[in-house]
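Late entry, adenosine-5'-diphosphate complex.
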Amino acid sequence: MVQADCGDAAATRRLGAHCRAISFENEWVDLEALAPLAAEGLVFRPSLAALEPLVNKRRQRELLERLHLPSPRWLPLERLIEPLPLEDIPPPITADPVEPRPVFDLGFPLMAKASTGGYDGKGTLVIPDPAALEELLERVDPTEWILEEFVSFDQELALVACRDGQGQVAWFPLARTHQHQHVCDWVLAPASVDQAVEALARNVAASILASLDYVGVLSIEFFYGPGGLVVNELAPRTHNSGHFTIEACRTSQFAQQVRIVSGDNVADIDFDGPGALMVNLLGIEQSAEEEAERRTALAMLNGAHLHWYGKREPRPGRKLGHLTVLLQAATPAELELEADRRLAEIRSIWPLPPA
Ligand code: ADP
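Prediction complete; structure with ligand written out below:
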């Protein structure tokens, strides 16, 4: 076993001496530090080249633009402080004044996002007005942040897809995700959306996977609403929105990742419907006894599968575990009702942290 900080390239080299391929479980990958190891012959799956546009939110937006895939309008924060190119400087004031061209036309509110290092809403800020934007500009390095339009959506959706070394692609069912203060709260699979929406999501995934010659599991978060399906974020790894696959699919997202990274082909997913609800257990203020009681009560719920992560610091708001329940209802409408009922049952035992 090699135990070291995930940015420790020397330890990664030692690990490489014991295995045929190395993969990642988060996107905080130091590509520069790993490049010499890849040059020495160490195999990374996905490859470092495939990860390059994915480990940074700005590069993700550029990739989506290059592939003509739907994503929110955005701009680098630094664009706001760049001097205008000469041809854009308004002519001197004449009797007939010319309005200066607006440099920025996304409107408020805006979303500001750190290009790297963010997760669970950390590094993501709603910017309600120009004053908040000024404040951000004073506080952060503008080359490390992007601004994007605030998307009005009805639902958030997520798709976990995977591609093996032979180029074969598979998709888990499109799921609906719900966030509490920018942190995933629950996931319902399948999402009750038109088949065409799922087909589009699958196409988006296939385009990204093929264009990057990506090998491994890739997760995509979408907004879905009046503007159609729009990509929010890409994650080059297994994902919280795919935890339901442990119980609900013959091959889970984790099993696929292990298969693919070790050179096997993708296996049949076989979603064992009609549905599954996954609820995150976010840290709340409580004593150790209260926590133990709540966990016992959750584990005893009908058809519930409790996963407890054993984190050493169970801070409020942190993901401490999750619970998956397999649903029984026969129609999509009934499935939503059943999910609502099960969610209320779970929340009565383990509430959300206060807003
Ligand atoms: P993280 O990397 O921290 O998960 P995300 O980009 O996924 O950050 O944002 C977290 C949540 O914030 C999203 O799930 C969504 O609810 C909200 N959000 C993010 N971007 C936008 C946007 N452009 N418009 C509206 N809401 C957004």
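The radius of gyration is 22 Å. Will revisit in the morning.
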